[in-house]
Amino acid sequence: MGELVLAGAGHAHMMLLEAIPDIIAKGHRVTVIGPDAHHNYSGMGPGMLGGTYRVSEISFPVKSMVESRGGSFVLGKVARIDPHKHLVILESEKEVPYDVLSCNLGSYVPNVIADEGSVDIYPVKPIQNLLHALMRIQEIGSKRPVHIGICGGGPAALEIAGNAWAAAKGQSRFGFRIQIFAGGEFLHNLPDRVRSLALKILNKRGIEIVQGSYVERVATGRVTLQNGQEYAQDIIFLALGVQPPKVFADSGLPIGKDGGLAVNRYLQSIAYPEIFGGGDCIWFETEPLDKVGVYAVRQNPVLHHNVVAQLEGRSLMQFDPGGSYLLIFNVGGGKGILHKNGLSFGGPLAFWIKDYIDRKFIKRFKVHAS
Question: Is residue 180 packed enough to be buried (19+ CB in 10 Å), middle (13-18) or exposed (0-12)?
């Protein structure tokens, strides 16, 4: 009998969570570690901010899902891993032993530019931050005009700006102002057509894009740029890109350039064959991957096969990242922007496609949780 531990319950562990009964039937034990009894689907987070979805619609009860399928759920955050003793150590100092470990710990948004003790500053991950920000938009908007600033120049900043607009439009009785502090050229890594569609939507909504100087510091009520300019804000979102958690570096495990767990073509630690990983928390040595959910989804069958094969001494399966992928951004107000293989368009249809895909995904989880 082997001890399989799944650290995290995100996209890359979807098939493993569904397969818990089958793994147990083979004589193994399965333990899932998570920071909350529910898991929020990050792809629908901006829509929650914009009022499209309720919290209950973007989450599934991972604890009950695991336990109803015969596994054990441990509530806690992973602090470090001892690869020599085969232990996962939680922040509470609780130790969880494993024979095979798979990590799907996601990513976070660094807030090093925020002054200590500042309030009303919201990194866009974890997703719960967006709910807190929405409540503050509602609270401030009921008394006076609300000023919202988004720090970042990528897709996350686009989605947050669009859905903050939707939130303020629906909640602020006294008007609002939204500014994006993009630093360099806004959405510079996206195709020109996508960027043009995004700028058209933002401009029509009166959302200002401040370019030419990066954000140096943020503090309560204030964004300060490197050129010295300051902007007063009530709500500040940090959408400055994501990083893997520091768990792997703190554990002395081999890591990639971004701090993610360094894995080989089998999604297996390059130093410890009993440790695997997927999603945003890994560094795929063969070909560094974008931090997008599609790769985590594509990693599902490989992780499912390989962790069980490792428990049983069977051969492993290689991960193929695959070709191009569908990009759809929810820009709030029932509109989206879609791009795939040179095809780009914006509007209600793009949002409808994203909404359909996202609801289908979360429904699959909820069905297996019942």
Answer: buried
> Which amino acid, residue 166?
A
234 with 135: CB under 8 angstroms? no
The residue assigned the tokens 């009964």 is 21
| pLDDT tens-digit map of 226-284 | 999 999 999 999 998 889 999 999 999 999 999 999 999 999 999 999 999 999 999 99
> Closest Cα partner for 89 from 251, 263, 246?
251
- The H or E element that residue 248 is part of is helix 247-250
Contact 311, 329 (CB under 8 A): no
What CATH superfamily classification does 3-35+76-108+243-325 receive? FAD/NAD(P)-binding domain (3.50.50.60)
Pairing of strands 100-103, 3-7: parallel
**Pairing state between β 3-7 and 95-97:** unpaired
- Do 3-35+76-108+243-325 and 121-241 come out as alike in CATH topology? yes
| Alpha-carbon distance values, 302 to 100, 219, 256 (Å) | 15, 44, 20
Find all residues with CB under 8 Å of 12, minimum gap 6, and list them. 104, 277, 278, 279, 296, 297, 299, 300, 303
167-182 pLDDT, tens digit per residue, is 999 887 899 999 999 9
Peptide bond into 126 cis (omega under 30): yes
Residue whose C-alpha is closest to residue 36's, from 9, 68, 54: 9
Domain ranges across the chain: 3-35+76-108+243-325, 121-241
Q: How would you write 151-200 as a 3-class SS string?
A: ECCCHHHHHHHHHHHHHHHHHCCCCEEEEEEEECCCCCCCCHHHHHHHHH
Q: Which fold has domain 121-241?
A: FAD/NAD(P)-binding domain (3.50.50)
Q: What is the distance in angstroms between the CA of the first residue and the CA of the last residue of the chain? A: 27
Nearest to 329 by CA among 194, 209, 236: 194
Task: Answer whether 0.90 is exceeded by the pTM.
Answer: yes
Classify burial at 58, counting beta carbons within 10 Å of its beta carbon; exposed 0-12, middle 13-18, buried 19 or more: buried
